[in-house]
Amino acid sequence: MEDAVSQLLENREDISQYGIARFFTEYFNSVRQGTHILFREFSFIQATPHNRASFLRTFWRCFRAVGKNGDLLTVKEYHCLLQLLCPDFPMELTQKAARIVLMDDAMDCLMSFSDFLFAFQIQFYYSEFLESVAAIYQDLLTGKNPNTVIVPTSSSGQHRSRLAPSECSPLDGVEASLFYHCLESLCDRSKYSCPPSALVKEVLSSVQRLTFYGFLMALAKHHGINRALGALPDKGDLLLDPPMDQELEKLLSQVSGLSISTPAGSSGDIANLPTRTSPRISSPWKPLHHRQKVNTESDGSTDETESSEN
To answer: How far is CA 276 from CA 130, 164, 169, 263, in A?
Structure first.
C-alpha cells in the first residue's frame, strides 16, 4: 500500500512538473509570436520595446480589414478598437496620435487606417522620446537653447542663448539644423527608445524650418524608421498578411463545409433550410455610415484623411 501511495505521489509530481513546463513553453511561444500582450493592462503592453512592437503588430493584423475596406474612422472609433485589445488603453495617447495626422484640423475629423496606424506607431513606441522632443521644441520656440549650460551666478541671465523674435513664430517652427543638434544629444543620452539618429538627421536635413507636428508626421512617413522599428510592414504591403489570410481561409472553409443533419423522425423544416453555395463568406467589416472610400494604393501622403493637412 505504501509503495502504491509513493508511486502515486511521484506520478503527481511528474504531472505537476510537466504542467509547469508546458505552461512556460506555451507562454514563451506566445512571447515569441507577440500574442502575449492580448487583453493585458496598459502598464504591461508598454513595459518593454518588445511588448510595444507586439501590440502594434497585433493591432495591425486584427484590424487591417478597416484599411482594406477603405473605411475612415474618428479618433474615438480608433480608441474603441485599441480598447478591444487593451481595455484600459488611455484616450490621451490615442488623441496624440490623431493630432499627428490631423494637425490643425478638428479632432472629430475622419482618418484612414494607414495614416492613423503609422502615426500611432511613432507616438506609442517612442512616447518618452517625443515628450523630450516636445520640451526641446518649446524651448527653441521661446528662444532658449536646451543645450546651453547655465552657471548659477548673479549675471547668469546674460549668458542665455536667445533666438531673434522673428525666429520664434509658432507658424514657422524652428530651425531644422539647430533642432537636430539638440535631438542628436538627446538620442545619445536617452535611456528610452529613440529613432536612429542618422534617420532623424535625414528627415531634418531636407528642410530649413519645421513645426513639431510636421516633424512627427515626417517620422511617421519615413520608410527607414518604420523598418528600423520592425513592427509594421511597408505601407505598400500594409493590407497584405499571407499567414493570417491562410488561417482565415482555413477557418472559412471549415465553417462553410459544415452540414446540417436531420435527426430521424423530425420534420423536414430543418432539411429545407437554405445552404451555402459558395465557400467564401463576405467580410463582416462594412463601410461605417456610408463613409468615403479611399484608394488603398496610396503613395504615402495624407490625402486619404479627410480634411487633413499635408
So the answer is: 52, 73, 64, 20
Please tell me what DSSP assigns to residue 46: T
Can you give the length of the chain in residues? 310
Determine contact, residues 294/68, Cβ cutoff 8 Å.
no
Rounded Cα distance, 127 and 120, in Å: 10
- Contact between 241 and 64 under an 8 Å Cβ cutoff? The reply is yes
E strands, the chain, in order: 72-73, 111-112, 174-175, 209-210
Q: In whole angstroms, what is the distance from residue 268 CA to residue 81 CA?
A: 43
| CA–CA separation, 310 and 301 (whole Å) | 7
Distances (CA, A) of 46 to 17, 93, 280: 32, 12, 38
Judged by DSSP in three states, 52 sits in: helix
Look-up: residue for cell 480634411?
Answer: 307
**Quick one: average pLDDT of 176-197?**
92
Each residue's pLDDT tens digit, 107-135:
889 999 999 999 999 999 999 999 999 99
Neighbours of 81 (CB within 10 A): 17
